Amino acid sequence: DIYPRVWKDDAHREMARTMMLRHGADMILKIDQKVAIWAAGAVASAILLLENYDSTQHGEPIYIATTDSKWLKIRDVVDGCERSVVQFYSKRLTCSCLDERCTAVKSLPKTGICHYCAQRKGRSDLLVCAGCSREQYCSRECQEADWPTHKESCRESRQEKKESKIVMCGVAADSNEHTSHGTPFRSLGGSVKEWSHACTMQSQERQKADVPCI
Prior knowledge:
- The protein is of the alpha+beta class.
- The chain has helices at residues 4-8, 10-30, 33-51, 68-78, 82-92, 99-105, 140-163, 193-208, and strands at residues 111-113, 120-122, 127-128, 136-137, 177-180, 183-187.
- It has a 4-stranded antiparallel beta sheet.
- A hairpin with a 6-residue loop joins strand 1 (111-113) and strand 2 (120-122).
- Helix 4 packs across helix 5 and helix 5 packs antiparallel against helix 6.
């Protein structure tokens, strides 16, 4: 391991975490806004590793197996959502240096990035894969285009949930989730209800043609 004393000693990990928090806050306050948010988000990912390090799991960050909703919140920070990044640091700092900035970003929407085209969208406008509940897309087309790449990790995630006796989001009949071309998805906002309806119709047509849906 690199820097074994940092990883194996709680005091060293806390020292490294504190330094990174200060560094991230300095970037938010002093660097060009867009660059600062992205950079601070990258530093936040390292902070999360330190906070969630579990020596009993051979160093595997415990947030990897966290709940789906918390996973998406982590993704918001790492992917550079301004509101999420500023709040991430503000909640962890003992000083008030980010209080004014934190108040300002409360009016901003939470955003995420499409896993396929990398466009930033409001979280309420994104679709979340109903299979793994961890990848999000800006449209059904993007999800279908990404499915050849995503399907293996999606199936692995679902299998892990089954083995852990976690109820999959894609199982509930009343969960407003549908499939299209074998790709499961779940809408987060009311603005995508028409996608759900269209996808249901396509799913029914495919079932008639004996094409299996997940």
